[in-house]
Design goal:
This protein is an alpha/beta fold. The chain contains 23 helices and 20 strands. α12 (260-268) runs antiparallel to α15 (338-349).
């Protein structure tokens, strides 16, 4: 069958089950947009390419499917960089399609030419420059396979305009030929046996679960393992929702802003069972003093992560769902003893808490109100900053893929387009964006996207007039010498929403929180609520830079 390269691309996308693409057209991709016009694939026109890739990322996080974005050559493609790095750091499957100048002009510094394969090499799992339209079916099949298998991640396909415009013979690639790509998916039986033995011998074990639990769909296996062994569970920011936060064995998130109980348990543990986590600096604190009494079990599908940051005693390479399925019959039934009682004491003595003040709206109150109004059933997306940590602590996530946030890269501007992508991917879910007034402005132009789609995403701005997390660091480390953190010149967010035809509301008092949230929940349309919160509220507890996890400051006393 004779098709243009663009038509081949669209046919290949349909065979991969693609139903939605996020992007913005440009000269180098007009043939692709022309072919998309005749297909069943929904094209979501964002207002910035960074928003397109973040929306594809949010779609992928919410659905577990591969998100797809499309950008033109040059600046259109380079605007994807932050989003690709974000997906790469958090192991999110995204395929980015970019236009490129014609093949005859490559390397000549032609109009809107950028060497995308070189630029994106460190922040993609793989990338391609298509030289022949006949290669497109194979390349697209490979791109989706690589993005979604093993440790997921973004893949970029750069397509010169003459490749998408030229006509060739279309043949679907029926089989994959990737001899150098063979992810290990099953744990070595001897290693799994060693894990079971170590778990049976430990007196103070802790399960430390990361985003790999969600990526592999291993949440039920993790729950079964914890309940069978009675081992307490802590998670990373990316792991939230992978284990029910209302479960008696859950002891909170660990790390920089971890709970007192989780951090103390890790530091006193004799066995760390790390599942789909990478021991990043936000979790370990001073890595030389991380879990000094513990043996370390590390299960991960990416062998490059094992032993990278923390010495590992028992490594297991494999898909978590498979490894935990292997492990479950081998572990012994556990009992709650002195170790669990010690952790319960830490939880009771030093809970998560904040001080309420008369006439001052605390940001934690908004998150707690959201949890109560939605009964914990919403899909919550955040931007990056203090509000992100308050959402992580005060909304009790019980389902995987219900908390979407930029973890590894910490990309301000992810949340709003990410929420749009999540709502499109899971239209039956109530989707709430929890944002700061600083981070929301990174991609606020997507109010236009929200408006033209009439997409009922509810935007909650915790407005403190600051780049709050940086202000907190300046307070702690720089004698409260504020520099460049006061957000003077902020817009009236309610009027801004209304300018786009979106309902807006403002809340300044505690008693207004619940009615505003109930109104937002009930609305079948998008809505923005601007919560004017305490400008100098800090995120506690916190591990100061260069300290081990048990040297927390701002710890509450019961």
């Amino acid at each position: 069958m004779q098709l243009t390269g663009a038509q081949m691309l669209v046919q290949s996308l349909l065979k991969e089950g693609v139903d939605t693409i996020f992007g913005i057209p440009g000269g180098a991709i007009t043939p692709i947009y022309d072919a998309l016009r005749d297909s069943s694939i929904k094209n979501i026109l964002t207002r910035h390419e960074q928003a397109a890739v973040h929306a594809a990322d949010g779609y992928a996080r919410a659905t577990g499917k591969t998100g797809v974005c499309l950008a033109t050559s040059g600046p259109g493609a380079t605007n994807l960089i932050t989003g690709l790095a974000n997906a790469f750091m958090d192991s999110i499957p995204v395929v980015a399609l970019t236009g490129q100048t014609p093949r005859s002009l490559l390397g000549t510094d032609s109009f809107q030419e950028a060497d995308l394969t070189t630029i994106t090499m460190p922040i993609t799992k793989h990338n391609y420059l298509v030289k022949d339209p006949a290669d497109l079916p194979r390349i697209i099949r490979e791109a989706f396979h690589i993005a979604a298998t093993g440790r997921p991640g973004p893949v970029l396909v750069d397509i010169p305009r003459d490749v998408s415009a030229s006509v060739g013979q279309y043949e679907f690639a029926p089989s994959l030929q990737l001899p150098g790509y063979r992810p290990s998916v099953t744990g070595h039986p001897a290693q799994v046996g060693r894990v079971a033995k170590a778990m049976g011998e430990a007196k103070r074990p802790i399960i430390y679960a990361g985003g790999g639990i969600t990526a592999s769909g291993a949440h039920q296996e993790l729950l079964s393992l914890a309940e069978k062994t009675k081992i307490p569970v802590t998670t990373t920011l990316m792991g939230l929702g992978g284990f029910p936060m209302d479960h008696p064995l859950f002891i909170g998130m660990l790390g920089l802003h971890g709970t007192y109980a989780a951090n103390m348990a890790v530091m006193r543990s004799d066995l760390i069972i790390a599942l789909g986590a990478r021991f990043d600096d936000r979790v370990t604190g001073l890595v030389e003093k991380f879990a000094p009494l513990a043996k370390v079990i590390h299960v991960d599908i990416d062998p490059a992560e094992i032993g990278k940051n923390v010495k590992c005693d028992i490594p297991v390479v494999g898909d978590l769902k498979n490894v935990l399925t292997q492990l479950l019959p081998l572990v012994k039934e556990g009992k709650e003893g002195a170790w669990r009682r010690q952790i319960a004491y830490w939880e009771e003595k030093h809970p998560l808490a904040y001080q309420k003040e008369e006439g001052v709206l605390k940001p934690q109150e908004v998150v707690e109100g959201l949890y109560q109004v939605t009964e914990g059933k919403a899909l919550v997306v955040t931007e990056v900053g203090q509000h992100q940590m308050w959402a992580a602590h005060y909304y009790r996530f019980t389902r995987p893929r219900s908390f979407l946030t930029s973890g590894g890269l910490g990309a301000m501007g992810f949340g709003f387009p990410g929420a749009i992508g999540a709502k499109i991917g899971r239209p039956e879910e109530e989707v709430f964006l929890v944002a700061g007034d600083g981070s929301f402005q990174m991609n606020l132009q997507e109010l236009a996207t929200l408006a033209y789609l009439d997409l009922p995403v509810k935007i909650l701005i915790l407005n403190n007039g600051y780049l709050g997390m940086v202000r907190q660091l300046q307070e702690i480390y720089h004698d409260n010498r504020e520099a460049g953190v006061a957000l003077n010149g902020n817009p009236d967010f309610v009027k801004l929403a209304e300018a786009y035809g979106i309902t807006g509301a403002r809340v300044t008092r505690s008693e207004e929180v619940r009615p505003a949230l109930e109104k937002a929940l009930a609305s079948p349309h998008p809505m923005l609520v601007d919560f004017i919160v305490d400008p100098v509220e800090n995120v506690w507890p916190m591990v100061p830079a260069g300290q081990p996890l048990d040297k927390l400051i701002g710890v509450a006393e019961a």
